[in-house]
Design brief:
This protein is mainly α and 403 residues long. It contains 19 helices and 2 strands. α5 packs parallel to α15 and α10 packs across α14. The structure holds protoporphyrin IX containing FE (HEM). Protoporphyrin IX containing FE binds next to α4, α15 and α16. Its cofactor is heme.
């Protein structure tokens, strides 16, 4: 597409001239008149200007703009996931998830800039804000819902959004819609449930994995029994019993479902199986991108938790731990309670490490399964299963380096 703007650089004249028919200019295109005139300093309006209020406003506005971009990416990723996923689309998902991760990294670090404001400076204008608070950030709430934070997992104080957004009908509607639409977590779950190799009448990964775990437990029991010291032997045997219980929680669907209903586990039983399978066979070409997706989902959860943590520390520094927030919560105490696992949407992916087994016990792929994991999708072009691992590695490294 050619640029409609016609610039005329005329050396014989002072400065550059712009064609009369010129189209939109920078400021117009970006609507800078709106953005750059949107910093209304209340301290100035009260004839007691506080220099740092400007930074306070700009920081919040920058956050809101980035939230908007994250939601934009998230919506597009949810769209891609909502149809049965072609493997060619996973690269696009990867690119956009990676973009969200990079934005979140900026947001985590941005807290530092606002921390250059001292609590005394903040005190000078804090009174004017009341009852405004980040608590009323509609976009933050939408972002959480679209990722998959469920109302029942929220801290109690934060469950009733009508108290916060009650008078704003359109905000209420947007929040309700975001709770009803399938979240990223739900869509990822459906995608994992379709992981090739889980079929009972096919490769039956789960059956094979279960037998491998039984073998691991047997081997460890035999080794513990050989222990000369009775104390050490008993310690190892009781540790083994605990490990068995942990495995029971994934092999027994009832135990798994009970954990889901208590909010301690989030994925369906089948989706968990898919995630474990992808983790084990991530070196197979067809699982390489799915594995990257799982890693980026954990990065998103980690970074939001880090943002929460940085925000809580900043809040304590600015208002201490016993002042109420301008939004009416207990302030620091409330925010501290949001740091737990309840806000981690992909908590199951973090906990996968609990269920790993030594490489030597990972069920070998059948030749049918091996060739099915070699074929299709964009990775076909970068690795051909005949040992051309180098190119595939380079591709994966480039993604890892970009994260
Ligand atoms: C001086 C700096 C800040 C202070 C003292 C502060 C204080 C607080 C407090 C006390 C709360 C709890 C709700 C309430 O007001 O009662 C809160 C919530 C929140 N703040 Fe801040 N904040 C600051 C900066 C920011 C910035 C820069 C953002 C960026 C958007 C932000 C976003 C939020 C969000 C999203 C919540 C809701 C969190 C949740 O409910 O899980 N805050 N803030």
């Amino acid at each position: 597409m050619s640029c409609p703007v016609k610039y005329m650089y005329d050396d014989s004249q002072d400065g550059d001239q712009l064609d009369e028919e010129a189209g939109m200019l920078y400021g117009e295109y970006l609507m800078l008149d709106k953005i750059l005139n949107a910093q209304r300093m209340l301290s100035e309006e009260h004839n007691r200007p506080v220099h740092d209020e400007h930074l306070f406003i700009i920081t919040h506005q920058a956050y809101e703009l980035w939230f908007k971009q994250i939601i934009y990416e998230l919506d597009s990723i949810r769209n891609l996931f909502s149809v049965v996923l072609e493997e060619t689309q996973t690269l696009e998902i990867l690119k956009r998830l990676n973009r969200i991760v990079l934005i979140l990294k900026v947001l985590v670090d941005q807290v530092m800039i606002l921390e250059t404001m001292t609590p005394l400076d903040f005190m000078d204008f804090r009174g004017y804000l009341c009852p405004a608070s980040g608590f009323q950030s509609l976009q933050f709430r939408l972002l959480e819902n679209k990722l998959g934070v469920q109302p029942e997992h929220r801290v109690k104080y934060n469950q009733q959004y009508s108290r916060v957004f009650g008078r704003d009908e359109s905000a209420m509607k947007e929040i309700e819609t975001s709770e009803q639409e399938p979240s990223l977590k739900v869509l990822v779950q459906r995608w994992l449930e379709r992981t090739p190799g889980l079929e009972l009448d096919g490769f039956d990964f789960w059956g094979k994995y279960q037998r491998a775990v039984e073998q691991l437990m047997d081997d460890q029991k035999k080794s513990a029994m050989k222990e000369a010291s009775e104390k050490v032997r008993n310690y190892r045997l009781s540790d083994l019993e605990k490990r068995k219980e942990v495995y029971e929680s994934i092999f027994n669907p009832k135990v798994h479902d009970a954990l889901v209903s208590r909010g301690e586990r989030r994925f369906s039983h089948m989706a968990l199986q898919g995630a474990i399978m992808i983790t084990f066979y991530r070196d197979e070409p067809r699982f390489s991108q799915p594995h990257q997706i799982l890693t980026l989902l954990m990065d998103i959860d980690s970074l939001i938790t880090k943002w929460r943590y940085n925000h809580v520390l900043m809040v304590q520094r600015m208002i201490g731990s016993s002042q109420l927030g301008t939004g009416g919560s207990s302030g620091y105490q409330y925010l501290r309670s949001t740091l737990s696992d309840r806000y981690k949407v992909f908590v199951d992916l973090f906990n996968l490490s609990t269920f790993l087994i030594p490489r030597s016990l990972i069920p070998p792929l059948t030749s049918a399964m091996k060739s099915s994991l070699c074929l299709n999708g964009p990775i076909k072009n970068i690795s051909n299963c005949n040992g051309e691992e180098k190119e595939k590695r380079e591709f994966e490294n480039s993604l890892e380096n970009s994260v």
